[in-house]
């Protein structure tokens, strides 16, 4: 039985072209700024996102942390959505290491923040009782909001509020290229109003390792020191950057295939009685669907699907997440849907008995 792994796009392996580029990569000591492949990747990434400079890091988590360390002093406050990856899935690095207090405002189901909520959450300056609000974080695409993409306008409205209050804006753009392809907007348009953006090479872009943080020369200069401090100076990591360069050249446009497969998946899931999802809401490669209690809980369904060779990930108590990627094609999607249908029928039968 073929295993269909829909847990995450992080499971994608490097392509043959990436492996060749990695084998032949020109390298140097990046801590001395002498790795030509890294320098080129950082330049190309910054260019693509309309920023002055880039910084290769080990992971999206490291990029987000380095950004927070660069902006925040101990005791500052950072505003983000209550569904933010930086809040849920980054081991509280922002408080433990950057020393910042996180202030949550609600994400709507499109991953947006209400600019008025952000304005209300920003602290008045100069009050000794209060932490200064130094940073507002956005996420695009939004992982826990089913891969929803923020439009340039969604971002601008929040960024304007933050900037008016003297706070910076960081974009957790782990899947920013999915947003760009999904919305058919150049990636630079999506981030023109934020101060910096991080994105992952290691997700749908299929690289083995890496993330790039992009912002002003000055910001990246400081971020480079923080990256070194937390152990992220990686020497001849041009081997990784070489795969990143291939990704920026050849892995972005194909994300449309993943999005089409996600839509197909969502349509199929919506047709299975006991599962629900609005297929029209799926904009990129993440499908979060709800499970009727008559079928079971999300962990029970996850387990039963795993036994049927379909790997998915847990989202909430009654929701599961599926992510499409380069190693899943349309036939796999249909195959997965057939297995999901069987599993759901079987669980309902068992529960009714
Ligand atoms: C995956 C992800 C990250 C973290 O990336 P890692 O490379 O896994 O550390 C950050 N933000 C979002 C929205 C993500 O989906």
Can you tell me about this structure?
It is a single chain. 42% of the residues lie in helices and 16% in strands. The strands form three sheets. The chain has a seven-stranded mixed β-sheet with strand order 2-8-7-6-5-3-4, with helices on both faces. Strands 9-10-13-12 form a four-stranded antiparallel β-sheet. It folds into two domains: 237 residues, Type I PLP-dependent aspartate aminotransferase-like (Major domain) (Aspartate Aminotransferase, domain 2); 99 residues, Aspartate Aminotransferase, domain 1 (Alpha-Beta Complex), CATH 3.90.1150.10. Helix 3 packs across helix 10 and helix 12 runs parallel beside helix 14. It is globular, with a radius of gyration of 21 Å. The chain is built from 14 helices and 13 strands. The protein is an alpha/beta fold. The chain binds pyridoxal-5'-phosphate. The site of pyridoxal-5'-phosphate has 12 residues, from helix 3.
How much strand content do the residues show?
15-25%
Tell me, what's the shape? globular
**Number of E strands:** 13
CATH architectural label of the largest domain? 3-Layer(aba) Sandwich
Look at the structure and give the CATH class of the largest domain: Alpha Beta
Strands of the widest sheet, in order across it, are: 2-8-7-6-5-3-4
Output the keywords:
14 helices, 2 domains, binds pyridoxal-5'-phosphate, Aspartate Aminotransferase, domain 1, Aspartate Aminotransferase, domain 2, globular, four-stranded antiparallel sheet, alpha/beta, 353 residues, 42% helix, seven-stranded mixed sheet, 13 strands
